[in-house]
Please model this.
Amino acid sequence: MWRRLTPLFLAPLLIASPVAARHVHPLDDGWMRFEVAAAGRPLAAAMPSADTPVEILTIVIEGDGQAHDRHGRASANPTPLRAVGLDLAKAWPGPAAWLGRSCQFVEDVACEAAHWTTHRFSSEAVAMTDAAVSALMARAGAEKVVLVGWSGGGVMAALVAARRDDLAGLVTIAAPLDVGAWTASRGLSPLQGLDPADLPPIAAPQLHLTGAFDPVVRPAAVKRTARRLAGPQGQVETWRERHECCWTARAGEIAARLGPQP
Model:
């Protein structure tokens, strides 16, 4: 199935193993674009072209993209018109990478609408993302990872974080962390798959941010789950922001709020 590529991804893409890369194509801003092989499926990724190993890598996971059209029907292509997660990764003050979601920015004959709608948080989708995180860490030579997720990417970040023993931190931004409560609050059909609301507390430094003016993910629908995941030392805050704007401009502040990593 053909997936529309934005200008960022018009050049040929790279298929990368966790330890090797081919056909790297630099971007004008010093980043490079490629694909990672994740549990046999491709996921779009990007990171700076510098090869200097890092101890801790921050990986920003993209949001849900265009899961539905304006009529509420499954879209033909989940690739986001604006990749907010990629903007956040590029603005992050430390070593960072970006990871797309299933069927975004790639050609994948296995893609079906369920992958970005009802089953966007399935165990298979989480396993794919987890494998891709390991691939990006291996590429960067990193020993630990900070997972950052915007919107639905924050849900995925939390689900992946719960699986890992190399987690240095977790940040979610405008994320519907209680998927069941979120869909109910918006009158949406329940999603099939995993839900951070069912996870035990995650043992890592955490910062969960919601937007006071966010009509998509209202703070009241997710704060209880965010507080439980974060534990007594974690931070759960509501900032004066909307859903898409203007988190990127505050990337440095967000990183600083999470604090120094072990």
Summary: The chain has one domain: 7-258. The beta strands are 15-16, 25-26, 31-38, 41-48, 56-61, 96-99, 144-150, 167-173, 206-211, 235-239.
